[in-house]
Structure formats: C-alpha cells, structure tokens
Amino acid sequence: MKQNQLYSTKEAFEVKDMDASKREVAIYLSKFDILDADADIIRRGAFSKSIQEHGVNSTSNRKIAFLRHHDWTKQIGKFNQLGEDEIGLFAVAQLGTSSIGEDAWKDYEEGIIREHSIGFKYIADKMKWIEDKTLPSGGFYDIKEVMLWEGSAVTFGANEFTNVVQVMKSEEKIDFAKKLSSEIDLLVKSLVNGKGTDERLFEIEMKIKYLNQQLVSLAESEPMVKSHSENIKSEQPEFDWSFVVNSLK
C-alpha cells in the first residue's frame, strides 16, 4: 500500500527558463490537480510543510536537495527558489561547478534535460482514496501532503518513450517515430560535440541505444487490429478474387 512506500518518485516535464550568467534554470518539479499513472492527484499545499521545514529559507541543515537521477551522491547544484504556485511545485535551481554540475548544465544547454522528478514519501493520513467509476483505475488518491526530500534532473523519465507500440494506431506510430528520430538526432549532435565528462558521454550513448531499440520495436510491431464481438457482422465486403483473375485475362 502507498503508506508503506518509503521513497517514491514522480515526473514533470517542463523547463521554463535558463540564465547562463547565473547558471540557473527555472523548472516545474511537479504539477497540481493532474491525474497521473499512479492514480494520484497532488493538490496545492502538498509541499508547503516540507518547504517550510527544509526549503531554501529554512534553518535546517538538511535542505531539499537538487540531484541527478535521484542519486544522493550526485548533487548537481542547489535550489535558490522553491515554492508552490497555481500550477505546481516551481523551482529556480543553480548548477554547481563540479564535474557533475558542469555535465548537467551542458545537458540543459543542449536540450537533453527537459524533465524533472521528485523524491518523496506518502503520508498515510494526508491522502484519501476517492472512488470514481468513470476512471479506468476506479478512482484516485487525493494527495494533500507529502514529505519532499529532493528534486532531480533526469535524462529521460519513466513515462517518456515507454509507449506500448503494439497497441498504437498507425498515425500514433508515425508521430512516435518522428519523436524518436528527433531525439536521436539531438543526442548524436551532443555526442559528436564531445563536451563534458566520459560519464556524460556514456550516458548519452546509452540513451541513443535505448531509443534505437524503441525504433526497432516500432518497426517490428504488427499493425493494430481491433477485436469485436463475433455476433457483430462486419460491414467490410469479402474480397472478390474472381474479379481480379478475370481482369487479368
């Protein structure tokens, strides 16, 4: 159950602005009032206590951290601003000058980092299951408060490029292929530029391989076929092979 999960993550997908002179990025770490894949809806105010106790202006020596891939050994900078607005959890983060901070800044500059994620803990008495039979999940968890530990920059989040290609419509596959191709082109350019540490270049190479495999899966997938009840007569006429044969004579 959720209340027993000690560490959970969620993705957000927006970089608002960058300031090269200050090495700052303005980002959203989470969005409010959106039903996500975990059947959660996080409400405004869910982060306010954590921000008060461990935010930028708190006296705590354990402030909410700015990490890479939720890895506590990879603190890439610090939050200069952290707060809630009507949209979600907004942050202004400053990248450090360490090698991992430099790598992350280059990834921002080249458009490789566009996604962020939070590391947090659910609070049992601050969440409630709301039944809603109109939803595939049968309802959702209304989240009033969480314990926020960190915000992370991620190269690609759990929800990006994880489409199940077997159930895509033809037009969706075309759009997905274009998205994959565009992302691969961007990564190849970054790899050719060769900037950053070996670890950064290795991570870019691994993402290229991952996306290439997605393209292979897309190419090998069968066209989507909708199933229907056997007692419903198909309106599509049978193919007239005799007409074709006679036409060739």
Task: Give an overview of the whole structure.
This protein is α+β, with helices and mostly antiparallel strands and 249 residues long. It folds into two domains: 2-154, no CATH class; 165-220. The protein is 29% helix and 30% strand. The protein has helices at 48-54, 99-109, 170-193, 198-220, 241-248; strands at 8-12, 14-19, 24-31, 40-42, 65-68, 71-84, 88-95, 115-122, 127-131, 139-143, 146-154. Helix 3 (170-193) packs antiparallel against helix 4. The termini are far apart. Mean pLDDT is 81; it is low at 158-167, 224-241 and 243-249.
Q: Measure the end-to-end span.
A: 70 Å
Per DSSP, the total helix count is 5
Helix proportion of residues, in percent?
A: 25-40%
Total individual domains: 2
Number of strands: 11
- Provide the spatial order of strands within the biggest beta sheet: 1-8-11-5-6-7-3-2
Major sheet characteristics: 8 strands, mixed
Shape: flat
Give me the secondary-structure category. alpha+beta
Strand content: 25-35%
Low-confidence stretches: 158-167, 224-241, 243-249
Q: What does the average pLDDT come to? A: 81
Taking all Cα atoms into account, the compactness measure Rg is: 23 Å
Listing every helix as H and every strand as E from the N terminus to the C terminus, the arrangement reads: EEEEHEEEHEEEEHHH
Briefly, what is this?
The protein has 249 residues and is α+β, with helices and mostly antiparallel strands. The chain contains five helices and eleven strands.
